[in-house]
Design goal:
single chain, 105 residues, mainly alpha
Length: 105
């Protein structure tokens, strides 16, 4: 995994990686007091601003949708090979061999 500039030694999940945006727009949202209070509490717990919190939620939802689409595509595709005892035995053997040589596919 390549690290963004300025993030030495820190492995960030996709939603936390900085993204290069061509332009930044603004959006105002209306929240009931209960939700506004919740967002403000999250900001106090470590987010710099309410915008940072909302951006992270949106990125997480984007990641969730990407995974969902991959799962749907995988479920719709024909099986490549049966996942039986022989399959898992070959998989374990391959992983052990890779561990010993320090290589991964």
């Amino acid at each position: 995994m390549t690290q963004p500039q300025g993030y030495r030694g820190i492995c960030l999940p996709i939603f936390a990686k900085p993204r290069r945006l061509a332009t930044v727009g603004t959006m105002n949202i209306s929240l009931p007091d209960e939700l506004r209070d919740f967002v403000e509490e999250q900001v106090k717990r470590g987010y710099g601003t309410s915008s940072e919190y909302v951006r992270e939620l949106i990125r997480r939802d984007q990641d969730r949708l990407r995974v969902r689409n991959l799962l749907i595509a995988g479920a719709a595709s024909p099986p490549a090979a049966p996942a039986d005892g022989t399959y898992f035995k070959k998989l374990r053997n391959r992983l052990r061999a890779e561990r010993m040589t320090g290589r991964r596919r």
